[in-house]
Amino acid sequence: MKTLKEILILAIVLVFFTVIAIRAQQASTQLPSYPIVIHDTGTSATVVKASPGTLHSLVINNPGASAVISIFDLAGASCTGTPSTNVKAIITLPASGGLPGTLLYDAAFANGICVQDVTASSDLTVTAF
Known about the structure:
Elements: H1 2-28, E1 36-40, E2 46-49, E3 53-62, E4 68-73, E5 87-92, E6 101-109, E7 113-117, E8 123-128
Antiparallel strand pairs: 1-8, 2-7, 3-6, 3-8, 4-5, 4-7
């Protein structure tokens, strides 16, 4: 009888750990990959993520006066020069430069994530997955 009790306890423990392992595997496919953090201070288009992903945040560390920051849904190869297609957001800062701040997006991008400050060199930090 003692052996049967030990076997039942062992079986319950194995089932418990199997369920935990399966749930962990299921959850891991839903977790984002490691974050991509890009620091940008220029006026040229910058590839944040060359393939589909999620734009998490745009931090305006030091805003440029009258800056126009554009965010594009473009693959890495298309993020050159001055992009004009697939614009997902345009942030226009006042002539005084405005205040530093964080914009949270958590938005999915189908092609890739491209950012450009077309008129002034703001100091930006972009985080994506």
